[in-house]
Amino acid sequence: MEKKYVAEPYKIKVVEPIAVTSRAQREEVIKKAGYNTFLINSSDVYIDLLTDSGTTAMSDNQWAGIMMGDEAYAGSKNFMKLQEAVREVYGFKYIVPTHQGRGAENILSQITIKEGDYIPGNMYFTTTRAHQEMNGGTFVDVIIDEAHDSANENPFKGNIDLKKFENLIDEVGADKIPYICVAVTVNLAGGQPVSMKNLKEVSKLAKENGIMVMYDATRCVENAYFIKEREEGYQDKSIAEILKEMMSYADGCTMSGKKDCLVNIGGFLAINDEKLYQKATQLVVVYEGMPSYGGMSGRDMEAMARGIYESVDYNYIHHRITQCRYLGDKLSDAGIPIVKPVGGHAVFLDAKQFYPHIPQDEFPAQMLAAQLYLKSGVRSMERGIISAGRDKDGNNYHPKLELVRLTIPRRVYTYAHMDVVADSIIDLYKERDKVKGLKMVYEPPVLRFFTARFEPLK
């Protein structure tokens, strides 16, 4: 059956030239960058799929809002607009603006976690786990087992395994669990959603044990779309209605506004508990700024408030998901191993299957990302053993998923760009037996995937 893909629900008003480089130029660039795509200058990149964080193309309405910036040090009217948008669209009472999502993670971790605590979650995220561990906590993965299998097509692979959560409560005691962190969607599982049924069940179990539910709401609109598409009883509900119900099962959330809020910078911590809010406002002054702007300017808060309303428009999110699916379908139809089903913000290549002859300790995903850049100037990123980092004893984590993330910025590229990406990967797959692994020659102590450097094995 012929697949249908919806056209872009926008017109292009401004264009930005992008680099077209030669193979010889890219060989110099990747060598200089230590085979780490994070260390490549954007001026040397043709199609940039490194991240969807802060790479959104803002709308004319948002750019108009930029001119309405009230840069008052305290009590900015743009903060009032942002607070109103968060309350109306997400339903949380209090908001603490931050410079981006990890600023919110830092504050949440400091006000809730004490030495010896455990924080269950549906698969780790790099910065989230780093903040939890730096404040004395231990992350415990309680995602369903299917999430660790790239070929499994469970429609809600982001779900919490309630038995795993319950076992942790029995093992360490509810008083050692300040909150459960639920990512909606789950980035490192391939952008996989959580069902509404699961969110209700998690909320019920947590409340029975006096444990808070905190969302990583970075891509919550994408999660709402998948619920509308896949979960019985939600087909006729609007994205806004589904999102509001999702949020009603949480006590708060951290938000990187650089994703589903459709802006280039900013984030926030949203919570319902007034005492917790007061603690957060004390810390935000130390790390970010006044409680009425945190780490954001007035104009950025205005753009975010407008972006929040735009994000729940069905035509926008339908195209967003469809564009990801288009790239995934092209690759899957060509026999390329990818994470299934295709998630909401990216297509993930299964590097273990792509390069089965390269051991995980020789970084197959990092090498695949480097090879893709060499082939066509397309920048992607590793999400495997390097991103997973080391445990407290200094040993490498060995995640079951060794992935390359092809992250699609919002409202930036066309289907023709996706064709270029797909064709490059298909060509690489034909040459896969010739490729060897990498060795790490520089490793920072924290979040090593950002700045580590590598050399090809001889």
Automatic annotation (TrEMBL):
InterPro entries associated with the record: ArAA_b-elim_lyase/Thr_aldolase, Beta-eliminating_lyase, PyrdxlP-dep_Trfase, PyrdxlP-dep_Trfase_major, PyrdxlP-dep_Trfase_small, Tryptophanase_CS, Tyr_phenol_ly
Catalysed reaction, written as an equation: L-tyrosine + H2O = phenol + pyruvate + NH4(+)
Example GO biological process: tyrosine metabolic process
Keyword hit for S-adenosyl-L-methionine: no
Cofactor(s) required, per the database record: pyridoxal 5'-phosphate
Annotated Aromatic amino acid beta-eliminating lyase/threonine aldolase domain residues: 48-423
Molecular functions per Gene Ontology: tyrosine phenol-lyase activity
UniProt key word Lyase: yes
Enzyme Commission number, as recorded: 4.1.99.2
Residue list for modification N6-(pyridoxal phosphate)lysine: 259
Keywords associated with the record: Lyase, Pyridoxal phosphate
Subunit (UniProt): Homotetramer.
PANTHER family: BETA-ELIMINATING LYASE-LIKE PROTEIN-RELATED (PTHR32325), TRYPTOPHANASE (PTHR32325:SF4)
Sequence similarity: Belongs to the beta-eliminating lyase family.
Protein's name in the database: Tyrosine phenol-lyase
Lineage: Bacteria, Bacillati, Bacillota, Tissierellia, Tissierellales
Name of the coding gene: tpl
